[in-house]
Structure formats: C-alpha cells, structure tokens
Amino acid sequence: MAKATAKEETKVIEMENKIEKMTQFLAENKIECFDIQKIEDEKHTTIFRSRMEVKGQLLPMALLMDDSIYVMLQVQIAPQVIDEEKLKVLAGAINNMNNNVRPFKFTVSEKGDFMLNACITAENTTFNPALVNAIMGEAVKFMEAQYENIMEAVWGK
Question: How far apart are CA 110 and CA 134, in angstroms?
C-alpha cells in the first residue's frame, strides 16, 4: 500500500513538472507570446493562450495541459460561423479534411467555432516542450498553405 501512495504523490509532482517544463522552455527560448491561465478544476488544467498569425489574420490558439497524458493544441480558425444548417452542408468537407490531414483534426464547437486541433501525447516524465513547439510550427505552416482552401469550404465559395 505504501508503494501506491508514493506513486500517486509522484504523479502529482510530475504533473507540476510538465507545466514547469513548458514554462521554463518558453522562458529559456524567449517565447513571450503566451498568457498562462490555471483553472481550478478536477484535472488541474493549465491553458497557455496565444495567437497564430496566418495570412494577416490573428487566430486564437491555446495549449491545454492537465492531469491526462495529452496536451491539446487548439486553433480557432473562424469564431461562431458554423450553425446547424451550415454544419449539415460542411460535414462532408470536414470529414474529408480529417481523413486527409493526419496531424490535425477539424471540429466545430458548441458555439459554432471552426477549430483545428492536435492531440499530443505528453506523459509527465517524458514531456518534451520542444516537440510541442515543433507541432505548433507545423500547424502554422499547414494553415499558411491551406487557409484559403479551408475558408473557401467554410464560406462555401
């Protein structure tokens, strides 16, 4: 029983280290574009908020970190533009994009926000902030290359 308790205590410490590793990585690399918000919830969520510039547009971006083994990258491509009717029309295009774009998935939030997501495995002991940073870089490159096509699908032009 003592081993189980020690392991649980280690998990909490490791979680704190994951967030500390990301914070330290940002500081060491002089990346100052993130606001950090700790949420008082059951999963101990921390949100690193920033913006991604794509084709002259500033898209809200967030890294969500919690007690799970995942970090979620979310980019809000278009806020509150997809209602139920538009979703019916756009569902096929979203499904097609999700089938053809492996690292990123597109979703529509309850508010109708059109989002790009990447789910990154991030165990506490092996968490690598440089990998997360590289994936954010790939998201920027992808959005730069595909933004017009994505928005054309959203607006149905």
Answer: 29
Ranges assigned E (strand) in 10-145: 35-38, 46-54, 57-65, 70-78, 105-108, 114-121
Q: What are phi and psi of 45, to 5 degrees?
A: -70, 140
For residue 61, list its beta bridge partners: 50, 75
Q: Which domains does the chain have, with CATH numbers?
A: 2-155 (3.30.1460.70)
What distance, in Å, lies between the first and last C-alpha atoms of the chain?
A: 63
- Separation of alpha carbons 57 and 147, rounded Å: 10
* Distance in angstroms (rounded) separating the CA atoms of residues 114 and 43: 25
The pLDDT tens digits for 22-66 are 999 999 999 999 999 999 898 889 999 999 999 999 999 999 998
**Quick one: pLDDT at residue 16?**
55
Residue (of 44, 46, 49, 72) closest to 59 by Cα position: 49
**Ranges assigned E (strand) in 42-109:** 46-54, 57-65, 70-78, 105-108
> Do 133 and 73 meet the contact criterion of CB atoms below 8 Å apart?
no
